Amino acid sequence: MNRFAELLDRLAYEPGRNNKLRLMSDYFRNTPAPERGYALAALTGTLSFQHAKPNVIRTLIEQRTDPVLFGLSRDYVGDTSETIALMWPVDPAKRPNAIPSITDVVTILNTLGKLELPAQLARWLDALDETGRWALLKLVTGALRVGVSARLAKTAAGSLGDKAPDEIELIWPGLAPPYLELFAWVEGRGERPQTDDPAPFRPAMLSHAIEETDFAALDAREFCAEWKWDGTRVQAAAGTRPDGRHVARLYSRTGEDISGSFPDLAEVLGFDGAIDGELLILREGRVQSFNVLQQRLNRKTVTPKLIAEFPAHLRAYDLLFENGEDLRTLPFTERRTRLEALLKRLDTPRIDLSPLIPFADWETLTAARADPASAGAGADAEAVEGVMIKRRDAPYVPGRPKGLWWKWKRDPFIVDAVLMYAQRGSGKRSSYYSDYTFGVWTDGGELVPVGKAYFGFTDAELLEIDRFVRKHTVSRFGPVREVVHDQGQGLVFEVAFEGLQRSTRHKSGVAMRFPRISRLRWDKPPRDADRLETLEKILVKIEQGRGPAPEATGAEKRDRMPL
Amino acid sequence: MRPEDILISTPLGLCCKRGGFHIDPVRPVEQALITHGHSDHARAGHGAVLATQETLDIMRLRYGANFAGSTQAIAYGETLTLDGVQVSFHPAGHVLGSAQIAVEADGLRIVASGDYKDARDPTCAPFELVPCDVFITEATFGLPVFRHGDAQGEIDKLLRSVALFPERAHMVGAYSLGKAQRVMALIRAAGYERPIYLHGAMETITRYYQQRGIDLGETPLVRDATKADLAGTITLCPPSSLQDRWTRRFPDPVSCFASGWMRVRARARQRGVELPLVISDHADWDGLTATIKATGASEIWVTHGQEDALVHWCTTQGLRARPLDIVGYGDEEETDVVAAQGDGA
Ligand SMILES: [Zn+2]
Questions:
Q1: Residue A549 φ/ψ, nearest 5 degrees
Q2: Tens of pLDDT along B153-173?
């Protein structure tokens, strides 16, 4: 457990993806089975014991420490499990002489009765050190958040051999902790594990962003186009087990099983195959904005009320498998014909076909992208993020193959805003002021912050901005510097963003979606930057396109991958 | 005879009216007794300074030859009488030359411990327990969540990381007086023999430690190395420089910080640290409470840090205890910011 605790500790502080990978693969390489398998299970969230309730652990510490000292410590540390891990009193004379392994912890927790839990936890806490206790408490309360996705952990396991994460995803649903066959296969000591799962995930095919210059080389007649819906890409897989039971699963784009969050959709997957599509929220037949979908994605528990308020819908793009037949080598147009027929047979309002956009040349498609409402998207136009261009003869190739699928996003919204505050970045960027808060002018001639961005610029531009920030600081608060911003002096950013929503958290009353710095306007004096009124007009336009947008409540969401 | 008749706390620091001196005064006074060289305790401009030879040397290195009107060195265990008050200095185990100061009159002994630790440190004399009637203790880490554990284990963690990331540079933020040299000595004790690089602000004090016979191996300056040279190496630097533009000369640096504060995750994250190393030059909770008990003192005065928790603990042990509100002592972190800026390396 101590070595695993050290890994978790290090992962929690390490910002870089590749460094996290190195740390995990080093651990997997140097840790024997079954220990590393249970570690993989913990990192991928596949352990299934009943989590300990926070009050169980609180009671344990209250029986052992002075309440005043616990209170002062808890206030200082800010996290209850961490406080307990640090101040757990250990009597050296009574310290158990064996440190529990994760294997011990997992196997014992799987069979332990509720009443025996507190005494068992106390014995483990007595045996571990500070970091070990912290890891144990995070593990048993189900709060293991160290910034590692299941996908990344699988990638690290695959790197012990030369197995790509997609190869692991293929067999993953048939595997269980401690993953002995998986490691044996990856390390070249065993056969590829057979999956007997009737509804496995098939790695998704992804597109490239198209550039204006690409079109010259492309013949419009060889391509189909469809709307790029602003939801979440999913794969709906279903099949029948040898015992006759039907299994249906919904996977995220990276292969995480999200069926539990969408039982209303999982229950209508009455087919045998795999559909690639977009998860959307439909109300009275109209696609709701991503803002609405996000309110469902962010919920942990799914209540009947949530399902009624945010009904999940699958808009189908493609068909990968049907009745045991692998369709992925067929041309796109043939797969689409099979998909149409399947959806007709299924006949459920929860799943429909993503329509094709009729076009004969790139000019027509350009017009459709600029105005989806008049090109067939109708009332759903504001839920269109752009268009997808697919070769008619393209097979379904996992990963991001070149020249088969293109995405062509709608132009972002653009405003000119003034840099107000700059904050130091993290990891590699910790010596740079790389996170920027910018504002626009109110009628009263005052700047109000409207967003924060930390990418969109080049490394060379980052250096220039960093230099500007250091030279033009007017005050400092910890890692934040306030930068000069008046009518005549300051730095103007051209900011691009995908959407806007009302927000009570921001003084300006609006919050941007995916803002990024698209250009530095050294040439522009701050007084010529945009006004709040411009953003309000954009907001009205967005709202009129798709009905009232919900009030933004929780924290601003930077990351769109839910779950 | 009350202890307050011998020592009282004033805005300037602890004052012994009868003996005519202050201990670690925060502003210039006639006669100062200095526990150790950290700049929140040892300030320039006093009329006369009494301290260990090492502390006097360190003050001279930091402030120049004219840092005080006159100086007098006192050895550990030696007793002087100042206007009828006996004073003696005893190892505090904090940094090189650090001392607890025992003040005795009319059969009552008060020990002002300055900063201290009871953990092993190869770079300074070990803490010596001085039985007393009143013990004045610091409380920098005066909460039961602070347990510093085994410093050598933290060094092992650092060395494993260096082995795992041979193309990256490990930068260890450490206070330039005491902590940095202790970290280097621990790295050597773990068997690491390659050069350990130094930020310019570390040079003077480190060379002084080396002159005093403390073996730290080869310690070249970063400014003489190229970016490529620094791959796979360890560099000691002031904590404030970890987020400085200075870090750009290192290949993909791993930001490490050796401090007792690193025990608390929020503190480490706040500083953007990637590899926190829990190594402290102050006693942890167990060290504070064990020392308080062992002195046999019936009255405890608690200064700088988490006074509330420690005072509470003392009362649960049947000891009289009160906080001493002396402003001006912080942890050395803030002081190091100034030192680093002054150097510019
Ligand atoms: Zn000190």
A1: -80, 150
A2: 999 999 999 999 999 999 999
Average pLDDT, chain B: 91
Report residue A405: phi and psi, to 5°: -120, 140
Interface of A with B (CB under 8 A): 6, 10, 12-15, 19, 22-23, 26, 65-66, 68-69, 72-73, 76-79, 82-83, 86-87, 89, 129-130, 424, 426-428, 430-431, 479
Compute the distance between CA of residue A127 and CA of residue A372 in angstroms, rounded to an integer.
64
Residue type, A139: L
Question: For residues A511 and A507, what is the distance between their CA atoms, to the nearest angstrom?
Answer: 10
Residues from chain B that touch A10, judged by Cβ atoms under 8 A, are: 161, 275
**What DSSP assignment string belongs to B211-243?**
HTT-------BGGGS-TGGGTT-EEEE-GGGGG
CA dihedral over A100, A104, A108, A114, signed as positive or negative: positive
With pLDDT > 70 as the criterion, what percentage of chain B qualifies? Answer: 94
Residue A323: partners with Cβ closer than 8 Å, 6 or more residues away: A272, A273
Largest CA distance in chain A: 83
- The 10s digit of each residue's pLDDT in A397-440 is 988 888 999 999 888 889 999 999 999 887 677 788 999 999 99
Of A13, A77, A83, the CB nearest to B273: A13
Which residues in chain A touch residue B309, judged by CB atoms under 8 angstroms apart?
A: 68-69, 72-73
Question: What is the DSSP annotation of A321-342?
Answer: EETTEE-TTS-HHHHHHHHHHH
Residue tagged active-site, from A138, A228, A524, A557: A228
Q: What is the mean pLDDT of residues B320-331?
A: 74
The minimal CB distance from B252 to the residues A86, A426, A428 is found for A428
Q: Is the ipTM of this complex over 0.95?
A: no
Residues of B whose CB is below 8 A from A89: 144
Q: What is the largest CA-CA distance in chain B?
A: 67
CB < 8 Å to B273, chain A: 13
- CB-based contact A86 B264, cutoff 8 Å: yes
The secondary element (H helix, E strand) that includes residue A520 is strand A516-521
Helix, strand, coil tally for chain B in percent (to 5): 30, 25, 45
- Helix ranges, A163-251 (H): 165-171, 180-186
Ligand 1 geometric centre to CA of A403 (Å): 65
3-class SS string, A147-169: CCCHHHHHHHHHCCCCCCHHHHH
Ligand 1 mean position to B192 CA, how many Å?
27
* Neighbouring C-beta atoms of residue A334, cutoff 10 Å: 14
- The closest of B281, B242, B291 to B261, measured between CA atoms, is B281
Query: CA quadruple A8, A14, A15, A17: dihedral positive or negative?
Result: negative
pTM of the shown model: 0.75
**Can you tell me whether residue A412 is helix, strand or coil?**
coil
Give the model confidence (pLDDT) of A446-504 as tens digits.
Answer: 999 999 998 888 888 999 999 999 999 998 887 789 999 999 899 999 999 988 888 87
CB burial of A179-214 (b: ≥16 within 10 Å; e: otherwise) equals bbbbbbbbeeeeeebeeebbbbbbbbbebeebeeee
Closest CA to B179 of B276, B55, B95, B278: B95
- Give B42 Cα–ligand 1 centroid separation in angstroms: 9
pLDDT in tens, A538-555: 888 776 653 333 333 333
Would you call B313 and A12 a contact, using CB atoms and an 8 Å cutoff?
Answer: no
Residues A13, B245: C-beta atoms closer than 8 Å: no
**What SS3 string covers A91-113?**
CHHHCCCCCCCHHHHHHHHHHCC
Chain B, nearest residue to A429 by Cα: B243
pLDDT digits (tens, 9 = 90+) for A202-222: 889 999 989 888 898 999 999
